[in-house]
Design goal:
This protein is of the alpha/beta class. It has one domain: HUPs (Rossmann fold, 3-Layer(aba) Sandwich). It is built from 9 helices and 6 strands. Strands 3-2-1-4-5-6 form a 6-stranded parallel β-sheet, sandwiched between helices. Helix 1 links the parallel strand 1 and strand 2. Helix 2 runs antiparallel to helix 9. The chain is globular. The N terminus is likely disordered. Bound molecules: adenosine-5'-triphosphate (ATP) and nicotinate mononucleotide. Nicotinate mononucleotide (NCN) binds next to strand 1 and helix 4. This is Probable nicotinate-nucleotide adenylyltransferase. Keywords: ATP-binding, NAD, Nucleotide-binding, Nucleotidyltransferase, Pyridine nucleotide biosynthesis, Transferase. One of its GO terms (molecular function) is ATP binding. InterPro entries: Cyt_trans-like, NadD/NMNAT, Rossmann-like_a/b/a_fold.
């Protein structure tokens, strides 16, 4: 073919396809305590999206809710016990090492700078968290540093009245999960996962009522809860 007939995406005015990069999942949470809902969500996303790893990042001082019943160190210890033995899962304690509120934007910016373009970040969250995202600190900047991957969760839906959230989703929604490793511009992907109606709130409540969260949390986490008598008087389990 004559050289003047070589059309590239550049000559046609389109953005060149980006090189595929490994994907790192960022799983932030209060984890008070961590439970099988969190672990299954991370595992299913790791498998379906081909994540190279998932970083569990306990929120030290959550900006948007009451201070947790347990210390940040205890919550991080429970995460460490829960993820031990899974080579894909890592504990990241950066929010425990920072002062002030644990804003996700600061965490993503820090991770993004450390990666130096060698991997892409995927911020993982359930639909309930995404439903409130327009109240997060500097939320409009989150996509500068990471894709946002939202999972289904029993009882959680997009609020029908939030036009700002609707517009955010419509503008940035990716059409295919295959775009995550190659899409230069970050976007939003919604992934259906196995519905597990487990929440830390219900676990704390059941312990307060003297019931065991056995089979809702890993055994090692339950042992830790009992040893430290967390969530009031659980040592008999
Ligand atoms: N069962 C679940 N299914 C899907 N996503 C979940 C589930 N449990 C938690 N998540 C998601 O995990 C992240 C961290 O959640 P968090 O630590 O607040 O747990 P939680 O069970 O929602 O706690 P709490 O009841 O105290 O609010 C959030 O993005 C949340 O949406
Ligand atoms: O940065 C914010 O303003 C912000 C506001 C609300 C929630 N987050 C983060 O979202 C994650 C899930 O929050 P939660 O309450 O569901 O545990 C956790 O990492 C929080 O720090 C972050």
């Amino acid at each position: 073919m004559p050289s003047h007939l070589h059309f590239t995406s550049m000559t046609l005015g389109m953005a060149p396809p980006a090189t595929p990069l490994p994907l790192i999942g960022v799983m932030g949470g209060t984890f008070d305590p961590i439970h099988f809902g969190h672990l299954r969500m991370a595992q299913e996303l790791a498998e379906s999206l081909g994540l190279a790893e998932v970083r569990f990042i306990p929120s030290a001082t959550p900006p948007h809710r009451e201070q947790p019943m347990t210390s940040a160190t205890q919550r991080a210890e429970m995460v460490a016990l829960a993820i031990a033995g899974n080579p894909l899962f890592k504990l990241d304690t950066q929010e425990l090492e920072r002062q002030g509120y644990s804003y996700t934007i600061d965490t993503l910016q820090f991770l993004h700078e450390g990666l130096q373009g060698k991997a892409r970040l995927c911020l993982l969250m359930g639909m309930d968290a995404f439903a409130g995202i327009t109240s997060w600190h500097r939320w409009q900047e989150l996509l500068q540093f990471a894709h946002i991957v939202v999972t289904t969760r029993p009882g959680a839906a997009l609020p029908s009245s939030n036009l700002v959230l609707d517009a955010f989703l419509q503008t940035h929604m990716l059409s295919d999960a295959q775009q995550l490793p190659i899409q230069a511009e970050h976007g939003i992907w919604v992934q259906e996962i196995t519905a597990l109606d487990i929440s830390a709130t219900k676990i704390r409540e059941s312990l307060a009522y003297g019931c065991t969260p056995r089979y809702l949390v890993p055994d090692k986490v339950l042992e830790f809860i009992c040893q430290h008598d967390l969530y009031s008087g659980t040592s008999r389990y």
